[in-house]
Amino acid sequence: METAILFDQKIDIAKEWRTEALEGSSRSAIIQTLEKKYRIHSRKRSFSCQCCSQQVILVLREESPHFRHEGKRCPSADNYEKYIRRVNKQESIQIHRVGRAILRTYLEGQVKTHGVLLEDGYMYRSVLHIVPDYILVFPSGEKWAIDYVTGSREDESYNNYIQKRTAAYKAAGFTPYYFIDASWIAKVPNRSMISLYLAESQMKVHSSIDEDWSEFVNEFMETFGESFVFREMFGVNHFNHNDKSSSVVQKYKVFSLAYVDPTEGKTWIQRFTPSNNKFGYSIYCAAIPLEKAVSLSKEGDEFQWWADDESEAMRECLNRLSIKYQHNAKQNSELFQSQNHIDSQLMIAATSTKHTYEVKSALGSVVDPSSLIDIITNDMPVELAQEIIENLRVNKFRLSKQSIEEIRHKARLVMGPIRNPNPISPGLRQAMIELALL
Q: What is the C-alpha to C-alpha distance for residues 205 and 213, in angstroms, rounded to an integer?
């Protein structure tokens, strides 16, 4: 292992080696410094194992300076050998060594405020099948496995290994989190898409913010239609659908991957919905400091993998799609509007008073929105629709989820199907879009 106890101090020999190297010391100078500082204590058998308290011996090797057990081995000794073999085989060693050390510094500084203990993965007190870089141990007993991934490869064996690694962590009772080196990021030119190694799909998470984005994207699909969203949001003129003749809109789930540049202290949280095992549709990419990416949420149940302005990003996306959708609808219905303008104005004048009374009555008993739903029609005045929207925004907390869904569904019916929309005014269509996304 890389650490040992000297009386009451924890000595991290690998960290000290890296510090000397970063200051420009040569290999021989580093060995000379550490020999002078620690060799006499090693000869006196003064170093002990953190895990089992047995004596350990200092070994100064450039590839892996460490402390070696003498006599009976403990789980940490076996775990350390497995860990070093894994890193040497699967990772870009120099990049991983430096990045892992920086990641530890950030992690230690953030999780301790929650009473969470950060341990080297190989110091776990049971023999592990696959050993992570770090383990977070929560006061509740919950454990997370943290890995910094650098060894990118595109082949089935590496994909199977990452899949096996994830399964091994879960089998040991760990929740796995992967911080992927930023060199893996691959955006598809002229498309809002990303390309993926097969192994990346094994490292994705579905956080609480991803759940919000999932709900938002599915509202887009239901309101604007899949073809429109894929064309305007992702720049794609077709999409994978098992049954293109089906009128049922499939549900889309948003996931996240965390890409990091430890030396720059930066993180990119890439939100996407999978297209297949090689591509994903890019929903949003949040650029945040690494310090935040390793910080726990207020509840302490996930990392803060989100930007402060993501709610605003959702609204901007909605506005952009709404304007484009309204423009398309206006082109499709211009002729109809010209022919029916006079009739529409007469209808507004004749029904406005009646509708206003009905809206106020319906909102007075908003728990039962059936009377309100009857008012939402394709001949209702735009002013009335806006009044309904404003009142619903104020009273939304009083509505059940089922009631909100019923109102959204009625708004979509008024708009009509994406390929053959109902001939309503642009103002009313905009109002229906707002109701559908309530």
A: 13
- What the block records as the tokens of 79 is 């775990």
**Residue 221, SS3 per DSSP:** helix
Q: Whole-structure pTM over 0.90, yes or no?
A: no
pLDDT along the chain (438 residues), means of 10: 91 90 91 95 94 91 85 87 92 92 94 94 93 97 97 86 95 97 95 94 94 90 86 79 51 96 97 92 96 94 94 84 73 48 38 43 50 80 84 75 81 76 82 80
Backbone angles phi, psi at 191, to 5 degrees: -140, 150
- SS3 of 368-426: the string is CCHHHHHHCCCCCCHHHHHHHHHHHHHHHHHCCHHHHHHHHHHHHHHHCCCCCCCCCCH
DSSP state of 55: B
Spatial separation of the C-alpha atoms in residues 118 and 302, rounded to whole Å: 15
Phi, psi for residue 54 in degrees, rounded to 5: -75, 165
User: How many structural domains is the chain composed of?
Assistant: 3
Q: Which domain holds residue 42?
A: 1-73
Same domain, 296 and 358: no
